[in-house]
């Protein structure tokens, strides 16, 4: 069960189960046959049993939250700077933390206690098979997709002015064929690619195998070639984005290219959002980014801030992955939630879910992925606010979700088969393509 516990404070999610729910049934398409598979995201990616690093917890203990913290017998010593030595950004961060500290502490304790009463977050007892899997290295996070997107900038784009609306929409999409192929691999960088099947498919794209969830669509492109998404002809009731914020950690690790926050204004959110669309943005714990979203970015798009939620990261034993009062990293991240409003928005154009208020300061508690920047799916917790049949879009995505459209220059990153355990299904065998019930359409509309 992906939503383990729920209360007025928020939710406890099993993030790995949320992924796995979208991959049954799953088929590998190759040649004249489809092989049925069981497909699970690798367990070791979500087995965070200890805090990520050692740090003195005395300050947190004074606050009474030792139950949730990972203690260490040999904490490292770290010179504490005087308050006067803090720069303005650090002062702002401290003030924000103090404002929401009790919400995070008390809410997390309540939700973790609820989850534990149901047998979750009590620390897993590993089987021998699990222990063997734990010893395996995490899948490599090396990804060449961003570099390929950079090269794809040399490809010509369709001249928008010479295309009629209907023709643009038709030209803006490409379907995976019965064998998992595209008309051309170049289409991946210039068209929205769809899997219209009701089952997941293991397909070969650009010489690599990826697991594509059912009823999903994606555009693999960088910031400068997002036009096909606009011409896709679909408006969305939910837009979630996880921008590659600039920060020192990213610059040091060089895991991915960051984007100046000012560039986010160029995203065509008003062209993608339906009236009253819910817009959700993941934010790092940097007050300047939070202020930019609330004071500049959302107003620029016509989005009204309605709530701030917090993703709280805990270990499999329900302890914070970082001490709550750590000066280095916090065990939570912020989500800024807004509603898209325009002068054209009137009562007759709003959906039935538009009147559903979004409660402020809700918590999403989960064991985080050990893979950098992999966020939990928000599909289940946001469903009451947008409706079960809502069109959903993720920007700057690094993975796909069933029923969602996704865009980014690494949009297939965590769909690579390296991140999944694939085994032949018990019904097992391979079946002819024309007998498979989950085969998608093979020709363009």
From TrEMBL:
PROSITE patterns named among the record's database cross-references: MT_A70
GO biological process, one term: methylation
Key words of the record: Methyltransferase, Transferase
InterPro entries with a match to the protein in the record: MT-A70-like, SAM-dependent_MTases_sf
Cellular compartments per GO CC: cytosol; nucleus
Pfam families: MT-A70
A molecular function (GO) term: RNA methyltransferase activity
Residues covered by region (Disordered): 64-85, 425-445
Keyword Transcription regulation carried by entry: no
Stated family: Belongs to the MT-A70-like family.
Protein name as annotated: N(6)-adenine-specific methyltransferase METTL4 isoform X2
Organism: Scomber scombrus (Atlantic mackerel)
Phylogenetic lineage: Eukaryota, Metazoa, Chordata, Craniata, Vertebrata
């Amino acid at each position: 069960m992906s939503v383990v516990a729920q209360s007025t404070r928020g939710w406890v999610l099993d993030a790995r189960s949320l992924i796995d729910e979208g991959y049954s049934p799953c088929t590998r398409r190759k040649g004249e046959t489809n092989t049925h598979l069981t497909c699970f995201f690798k367990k070791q990616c979500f087995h965070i049993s200890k805090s990520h690093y050692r740090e003195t917890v005395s300050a947190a203990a004074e606050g009474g939250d030792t139950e949730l913290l990972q203690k260490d017998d040999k904490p490292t010593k770290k010179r504490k700077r005087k308050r006067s030595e803090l720069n303005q950004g650090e002062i702002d961060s401290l003030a924000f933390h103090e404002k929401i500290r009790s919400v995070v502490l008390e809410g997390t304790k309540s939700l973790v206690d609820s989850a534990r009463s149901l047998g979750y977050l009590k620390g897993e007892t590993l089987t021998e098979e699990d222990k063997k899997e734990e010893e395996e290295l995490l899948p490599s996070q090396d990804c060449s997709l961003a570099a390929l997107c950079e090269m794809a900038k040399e490809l010509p784009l369709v001249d928008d002015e010479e295309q009629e609306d209907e023709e643009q929409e038709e030209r803006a999409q490409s379907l995976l064929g019965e064998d998992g192929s595209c008309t051309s691999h170049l289409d991946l960088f210039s068209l929205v690619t769809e899997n219209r099947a009701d089952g997941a498919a293991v397909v070969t794209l650009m010489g690599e195998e990826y697991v594509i969830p059912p009823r999903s669509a994606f555009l693999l492109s960088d910031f400068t070639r997002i036009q096909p998404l606009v011409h896709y002809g679909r408006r969305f009731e939910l837009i979630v984005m996880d921008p590659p914020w600039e920060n020192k950690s990213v610059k040091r690790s060089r895991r991915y290219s960051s984007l100046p926050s000012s560039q986010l204004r160029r995203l065509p959110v008003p062209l993608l959002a339906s009236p009253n669309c819910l817009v959700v943005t993941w934010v790092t714990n940097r007050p300047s980014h939070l202020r930019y979203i609330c004071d500049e970015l959302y107003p620029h798009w016509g989005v009204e801030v309605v709530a701030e939620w917090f993703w709280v990261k805990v270990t499999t034993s329900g302890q914070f992955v970082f001490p709550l009062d750590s000066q280095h990293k916090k065990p939570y991240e912020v989500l800024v939630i807004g509603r898209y409003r325009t002068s054209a928005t009137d009562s007759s154009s709003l959906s039935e879910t538009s009147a559903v208020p979004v409660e402020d300061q809700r918590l999403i508690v989960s064991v985080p992925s050990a893979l950098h920047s992999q966020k939990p799916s928000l599909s289940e917790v946001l469903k009451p606010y947008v409706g079960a049949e809502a069109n959903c879009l993720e920007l700057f995505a690094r993975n796909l979700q069933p029923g969602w459209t996704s865009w980014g220059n690494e949009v297939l990153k965590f769909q690579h088969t390296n991140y999944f355990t694939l085994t032949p299904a018990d019904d097992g065998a391979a079946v002819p393509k024309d007998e498979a019930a989950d085969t998608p359409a093979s020709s363009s509309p």
